[in-house]
Amino acid sequence: MIRQIVVAAFISISPLVISCHHAAPKVETPRVAIVEVERQFIADRQRFIGSIAANFEAVIQPRVQGFLASSLFDNGMPVRRGELIFTLDGAEQRAAQLSAKAALASARAKVVEAKNSYDRAVPLAAINAISRAQLDQYTASYEAAKAAVQSAEQQLVNASLAVGYTRIYSPIDGIISTSAAHIGDYVGPGTRFATLTTIQNIDTVAVDVAIPMRRYLASSGRTSLTYDNRDLLTNIRLYKADGSEYPHRGFYKFTRSSVPNDMGAMVIVVGFPNPEYALKAGQFARVEANVGRGSECVVVPITAIASRQGVSNVWVCRPDSTVEYRRVVAGEVLGNRRIILEGLAAGEHIALIGAERLRNNQRIIPSKGRSNE
Q1: What is the distance between the alpha carbons of residues 181 and 132, in angstroms, rounded to a whole number?
Q2: Which of 90, 137, 154, 215 minimizes the number of CB atoms within 10 Å of its CB?
Q3: Looking at per-residue confidence, does 33 or 61 come out higher?
Q4: Which residue range forms the structural domain that includes residue 72?
Q5: Separation of alpha carbons 16 and 21, rounded Å
Q6: Residue pair 171/83 in contact by the 8 Å Cβ criterion
Q7: Is 36 exposed, middle or buried (CB count within 10 Å of its CB: 0-12, 13-18, 19+)?
Q8: pLDDT value at 26 more than 70
Q9: Are residues 210 and 283 in the same domain?
Q10: Contact call for residues 255 and 209 (beta carbons, < 8 A)
């Protein structure tokens, strides 16, 4: 009786056991995209904050004195080289010019008289009708009269130049500043308005880039200072106050001749073309540039890095196609890539997107991924 019950129980349980055995899910080996870790040459990209300065500034000073007759420009607006910007009344200069013309005419009349006297004296001296000393006097008078004409001609040139100086033209292209002098003020050398205004040339603008001395020596590879740093900065870019990138690339201009005591830095002046006058002197700007020769770094795609609570990790694919969850020290972000400072070596392989579903020591089917993903 007991044996029949045991057999019946076995028969009733066996289908259940067999059914559970067939319901167990089949674990598939996941296919994961991996990339090889490589060392790449990365430039040392640095940022600087500076003030924009004009290329140079022209100071407008009248060469002659006179009453200001007109100002032919708008304050703070562009002017072109050769454009008329001020006029003086020029009464004094025109009077001096007329006087110089009269003096020249008088000198020319005297040279005619002196020449006639000399011409008459020469044949008389030949027949001893006059003494040699008298001939010398006529000769000297004639030469002095000719010299007086040359002097009078030069005086007329100077007077004519002074008349021209009453019209003041812009010597450069640039932005003209305001003038303290007003119409009717007496201006010129020796007056309170010896300077009328200034014009800033901003076809090209300049920015001072201050590199701390220790960093400069490390980036340049030098042990001593130099005044030629044209190869130190490359890919120079400027960003305006609103964060937008300025379209024109910068270039090296020169290195300041001294190191400011309050900065302890090497100051390098970089220039930027400014054909549209989009930049003005005095603006603050951020300058970025590659400094020095750079260095080789381990760089991986950002998608390969998992960051949790400030800790960065990657899935490393071993040679036996198993994965290891490894902590790394991540550095600067470079577009869609990131520098790894510690934790990875060149030649290793790491998993890309989808690696969050992996488990430590899990076996995978690696497939080649793209490093720019």
Answers
A1: 64
A2: 154
A3: 61
A4: 62-90+166-195
A5: 9
A6: no
A7: middle
A8: no
A9: yes
A10: no
